[in-house]
Amino acid sequence: MRSRWIAAAVVISCTAAGGWLLSLRTTKVVNWFVMTDELFYVRLAVSIAQTRSPLPRIHGEIVENVNQLYPLLLAPLFGNADVPSSLAAVHRLNAFLFVSAAVPVYLLARRAEAGRIVSGAVAAAAVAAPWAVLASFVLTESVAYPAFCWAALALVVATAERSARYDALAFVAIAIAVLARVQFVVLIVIFCVAVVVDAVVRSEGARGRARAAAAARQLVRRRVLLGAYALIAAGAGTVAVAAGYSRLLGTYAVTVETLRVDLALATLWAEHVALLSLGLGVLPFLVGASWLLDRVASRDPAQRALALVGGSVVLALSLQVASFDQRFGAGLVKDRYLFYAVPIVLVAAGAATVAGNRLRWWSVLPPAAICALGLLSHDFPTYEKLNADSVLAMLNTELLRHVGSVEWARLFAAGAVFVAAAAIVEVTVFAGPRPVALAGVVLAVVFLPAQLVYAFHRLHAVPGTNGLPIDLDQGAVFGWVDRLVGRDGRVTFTAYPYGSDYWAAVAYWWDVEFWNESATARIVPGQGLPDPEPWLAEFDPKTGAVRRWRETRYFLSHENDVRFRLAGDYVAFDRNAYLIDTERPWRAAWATEAVHGDGWTYPHVPARIAVFPMPRQGTPLVRFATIRIASPDDRDAQPVTLETNLERWSGAIAPAGNVDRLLRVCVPPDGPGYIVVRTPNVTDINRDPTKAPLTGERDRPVGMQIRSMTVADEREVTDSCKEN
Predict the structure, then answer these.
(1) N or C: more exposed end of the chain, with fewer CB within 10 A?
(2) Distance from C-alpha of 540 to C-alpha of 532, rounded to nearest angstrom
(3) Phi/psi-derived region of residue 208, left when phi > 0, alpha when psi is between -120 and 50, beta in every other case
(4) Residue 30 · residue 471 · CB < 8 Å
(5) In whole angstroms, what is the distance from residue 28 CA to residue 9 CA?
(6) What's the rounded Cα separation, in Å, for the pair 210 and 224?
(7) Which residues, 6+ apart, have CB-to-CB distance to 199 below 8 Å?
(8) Which residues are within 8 A (CB) of 682 and not within 5 positions of it... i.e. 6 or more apart?
(9) What are phi and psi of 696, to 5 degrees?
(10) Please, is 624 exposed, middle or buried when counting C-beta atoms within 10 Å of its C-beta (0-12, 13-18, 19+)?
């Protein structure tokens, strides 16, 4: 008993030390890298911190998200309107969560009768794998990995022990794993398969129907198991009938709704298995996979349970992820969703090191054949920066640099599988599996951490997704809204993703929302409406009163967003955006008509800017508006005319230039005053990226662009608004 307590203390201490070491690297990442995934979980955590409700909300609305365990764990780290410090705490917590998977992996290896040293080595390799780099991001992997490992341990124990207590613990573990990542709903199927096959194997003394009846009697006695599956079936059926599979599986519903078993899926499945083996160094994978295959019908309940659960995990996860990547991932191998099978394979390899264990040589042939075929069809894509979805792809650049081409890379990798399989067969036949299994464990202990070091190197070597170094803190730049409104401030914004660089504009609003807890509400003007300028439907045409938006005190609007501007006091102008302390109830100070969402006017159609009257305005008022008009033509000057009910200006804009004009417009008390923009010439420009794919074609006819528009607070009383 004392030795067990000492062993437990050593394991926990080593795990804590490993978490601290990993946190030294993860906390060096001070910027976002994976969008919009990281933004999604940050907003969920902020919502929980602000509302004290565990329900998943984004912008105040309930969203369909089952992966709510991670935001729940992160919520205590948010709520102080200091996202940079919260992000550092998240990355530190991620490291400890990820490394905590070493505990269930160690216990699983010990249950497989691997020695303490081998079990410790397997556990260390499982958490020092290259996918640990994902702990540097706000992604569910950090909590999903240990949750999955604990669930795998629970399933193995429940399959072997066949008791109500362990069955109940298994379903609790599955539930936690699914809350960590909905992908793990597949564990429900895996547990069912393992339990049924185990019951059949246990009934080996009978034949035919008698064996089936004996297995059925064993299952019937497991009332907790049957009751849980009955409840799961009833609940899943109800939700599926009422709302479809998407409510159950989220984005993973595509693996069920559009599953088509064909040669393409089989090939992609083989590629997934092969890339996983390559990431492990081939030998550890082949040893572990062959052990799992060999022990499926073992007479030892513990070994059989590990083989049944582990083999089902490798098969089901690889098939699930292959189907998902085929439908949703452009047919690329995304090992980010598959690496959960790594600890199972490593534990199996560790089990093969046990003295006296025999391994039939032929059991290595099926996994070796699958890996070889998968590698011979793989394209070995390369990426400039670390690909969070395909971490192992970082090896492809070096591989192709040394072998010269994709064809040679395929032959080299397949040859490595052949050599490893031949070594396993030869050593197993003449000396037993232990030497080659020990070699596999040693290789994993060396190769996996080496890849992790390289993964962190690649992460910091190239600027991130937003074009900035991942170790360059942007919170001080983009967190200005939180600094102004404080922890209790609430800001609504409407993204304006237009400009010369569309994706830079998109990233701008990602930064606004990511770095500011106060940015709690986002509106999409006219969402779902077919009108050419759908934002107009949001306002009363005479007063500009807002009809349906939920109000906050503050509103953030980009200076180039000329669709509308809410009335209020300008608090600050930073990062090309206005922070407005709004009038309540909300109303538009002005809104545009007959323009595209990005400010370009329609050809041969005068654009109008409606300047709305102020609340309780009793007399006509002269308002002062500054408007900037830009020309799309880079060769010739373009004519433009600006008119109000008080003045008219005509002129020409230089090629690719712009002009600023201060205009007076009279606003009556019972309706808006208008500024009219007339642009007789037509120029073709790039497509609207929000309505058509960006192809580089200049096939959108426009007049001019209203680049910016402001209405001053100054006003003059007048007797009437006389038209020119």
Answers:
(1) N
(2) 17
(3) left
(4) yes
(5) 29
(6) 24
(7) 215, 216, 218, 219
(8) 603, 604, 701, 702, 703
(9) 90, -5
(10) middle
34 near 150, Cβ under 8 Å?
A: no
Name the residue with tokens 């059926």: 237
Amino acid symbol at 400: L
Is residue 180 within 8 Å of 143, Cβ to Cβ?
A: yes
Report the Cα 655 to chain-centroid distance in Å.
43
pTM of full prediction above 0.70: yes
Q: Where are the chain's structural domains?
A: 2-461, 474-589, 594-724
User: Side chain identity at 322, as an amino acid letter?
Assistant: A
Among candidates 132, 172, 126, 128, which has minimal Cα distance to 149?
Answer: 126
Q: What angle do CA 196, 202, 207 make, to 5 degrees?
A: 95
Whether 191 shows a pLDDT value over 60: the answer reads yes
What secondary structure, in 3-state letters, does 46-61 show?
Answer: HHHHHHCCCCCEECCE
CA-to-CA distance for 347 and 113, rounded, in angstroms? 10
Instruction: State yes or no: pLDDT of 205 exceeds 70.
Output: no
CA distance linking residue 568 with residue 576, whole number of Å: 18
User: Which residues, in sequence order, are bridge partners of residue 659?
Assistant: 629
Sign of CA dihedral 642, 648, 653, 659: negative
d(CA 359, CA 424): 10
**Per-residue pLDDT tens digits for 12-26:** 888 899 999 999 999
Strand order in the sheet with 564-566: 564-566, 588-593, 607-611, 673-678, 638-643, 648-653
Paired tokens of 247: 């409510």
pLDDT at 529: 66
Residues 6+ apart with CB under 8 A from 9: none
Can you list the alpha helix ranges (DSSP code H) found in 520-580?
A: none
Separation of alpha carbons 355 and 352, rounded Å = 8
What's the pLDDT band for 343 if we cut at 50, 70, 90?
A: very high
How confident is the prediction for the chain on average, in pLDDT? 88
Q: Could you please state the CATH topology (level 3) that the domain comprising 594-724 is classified under.
A: Jelly Rolls (2.60.120)
Torsion of CA 352, 358, 360, 361, to 10 degrees: 70
394 φ/ψ angles, rounded to the nearest 5 degrees: -60, -25
Dihedral of the alpha carbons of 209, 211, 214, 216, in degrees to the nearest 10? -70
Residue with the bigger pLDDT between 666 and 258: it is 666
Order across the sheet with 705-717: list the strands. Answer: 658-667, 621-630, 705-717
Report how far residue 626's alpha carbon sits from residue 714's, in angstroms, rounded to the nearest whole number: 12
What is the 8-class DSSP label of residue 30? -
Residue 630's Cβ-side half-sphere holds a number of Cα atoms within 13 Å equal to 16
Identify the three-state secondary structure at position 492: strand
Query: Which of 81, 43, 59 lies closest to 486 in space, CA to CA?
Result: 81
Question: CA 390 to CA 338: how far, in whole Å?
Answer: 10
Q: How many CB atoms lie within 10 A of CB 341?
A: 26
Task: Give pLDDT tens digits for 614-662.
Answer: 998 889 999 999 999 998 888 888 899 999 999 999 999 998 888 999 9
Residues in the chain: 724
Closest CA to 709 of 585, 584, 603, 623: 623
Residue 404, number of CB atoms within 10 A of its CB? 11
**Is 143 in contact with 44 (CB distance < 8 Å)?**
no
Q: What is the pLDDT of residues 65-90, one digit of tens each?
A: 889 999 999 999 999 989 999 999 99
